[in-house]
Write a structure and sequence with these properties.
With 348 residues, this protein is an alpha/beta fold. The chain has helices at residues 39-46, 97-100, 149-152, 160-167, 188-198, 210-218, 231-238, 254-263, 301-312, 328-336, and strands spanning 2-6, 14-17, 28-37, 59-60, 64-72, 84-87, 119-120, 123-124, 131-134, 140-142, 178-182, 202-207, 223-226, 244-249, 264-272, 292-295, 320-324, 343-347. It has 2 domains: 2-157 and 299-347, Quinone Oxidoreductase, Chain A, domain 1, CATH 3.90.180.10; 160-295, Rossmann fold (3-Layer(aba) Sandwich), CATH 3.40.50. Helix content is 24%, strand content 26%. It has 10 helices and 18 strands. α4 crosses α5. The model has no long low-confidence stretch (mean pLDDT 96). Strands 3, 5, 6, 9, 10, 17 and 18 form a 7-stranded mixed sheet that branches. Strands 13-12-11-14-15-16 form a 6-stranded parallel sheet, sandwiched between helices.
Length: 348
């Protein structure tokens, strides 16, 4: 079968022929219906080197996956051949307290995981292929009948990641509050929708690209603000000088973190989602009193069920450009050059 594989660090992926996976005991093979293209893959291709992560190439890319159960290993129960499913991407040990809650992202025994701190498309073979091996059926979530794999695949990360980041701040997003989303690309434009559909907050979207701001307005942002030297004052003015109760930074650069720190309100949340490598100095007088700063990674299996429910009801969707597998490399090029609005999705 064909697969888009990263063969080495600091290299472009290549479309190659590989054997179709065969499930062992307790494993499942799914036929891929769609795989999302994520900006973090660009970091894998160009910003990492041996020793930085506990795993490395070669592996098939694609950690946002949905499709149909194709083959079951011995002893597998709970899913059926032909069933439409989404894949919960992070794969932990499966036996620690957090994995038993479906929070594989924060597995406490990563040495016992299929690959420490990763999963399909992140150290193990992912979904940029015709078929994908899933090591345990607990990583599969049945798709609602009204949601196709093409619609569901990007929601497994581009939906789940901002959903988790926003959900943990729900108590601070009552009527009269303000949330700021910095970076309204693949994750951020879904984050705007999640805020609008699950909270009463007023939503401000910030980006340097006019197309991204138009998309943010289309999906419900109450105010769009061009990134730049006037962004902080515009946000402050629009909130009566108070600042934002919640800031979700989907970029994570030095510039965006500085903006986030300058607009977060006393008692507010500043959540770093993007992995652009920036740093945020924290000191007693450096942030408003009791402003909380946190990083988050992906989300839990139960949260994925909730995200897919929002998608099935038409409340949240990922704006997507579809590529076939032969042109998957082009999708990454378009992402890197900023030619995409929303998410790219590869359909074998």
């Amino acid at each position: 079968m064909r697969a888009l594989r990263l063969l080495d660090w600091k290299s472009e992926p290549e479309l190659v022929e590989v054997p179709r996976p065969v499930p062992g005991p307790g494993q499942v093979v799914i036929r891929i219906g769609a795989a999302g293209v994520c900006h973090s893959d660009l970091h894998l291709m160009h910003d990492f080197a041996p020793g930085i992560l506990p795993w490395g190439p070669p592996f098939t890319l694609g950690h946002e996956n949905a499709g149909w159960v194709a083959e079951l290993g011995t002893g597998v129960t709970g899913v059926e051949v032909g069933q439409a499913v989404a894949v919960h991407g992070p794969w932990g040990c499966g036996t620690c307290a957090r994995c038993l809650l479906g929070i594989d992202t924060y597995c406490e025994n990563p040495a016992a995981a299929p690959v420490p701190g990763g999963g399909g498309g992140l150290g193990l073979d992912g979904g940029m292929a015709e078929y994908m091996l899933v090591p345990d059926p607990r990583h599969l979530v049945p798709l609602p009948a009204t949601l196709t794999p093409t619609e569901a695949a990007p929601l497994t990360d581009a939906g789940l990641t901002p959903y988790h980041a926003i959900r943990r701040s729900w108590s601070k997003l009552a009527p009269g509050t303000t949330a700021v989303v910095i970076g309204v690309g693949g994750l951020g434009h879904v984050g705007v929708q999640i805020l609008k559909e699950t909270t009463a907050a007023r939503v401000i979207a910030v980006d340097s690209r006019a197309d991204a701001l138009r998309l943010a307005a289309d999906v419900g942002a109450d105010l769009t603000v061009p990134a730049g030297e006037d962004a902080a004052s515009t946000i402050r003015e629009s909130t009566g000088g108070r600042g934002a109760d919640v800031v979700v930074d989907c970029v994570g650069s030095d510039e965006t973190l500085a903006l986030a720190a300058s607009v977060v309100r006393t008692l507010g949340d500043l959540t770093i989602v993007g992995i652009a490598g920036g740093t945020l100095p924290v000191s007693f007088f450096g942030l408003p009193y009791e402003a909380s700063v946190q990083t988050t990674y992906w989300g839990s299996r139960s949260e994925l069920v909730e995200v897919l429910d929002l998608g099935a009801r038409g409340l949240v969707r990922a704006a997507s450009t579809v590529y076939d597998l032969e042109h998957a490399v082009d999708a990454y090029h378009d992402l890197r050059e900023g030619r995409l609005d929303g998410r790219a999705v590869v359909v074998p």
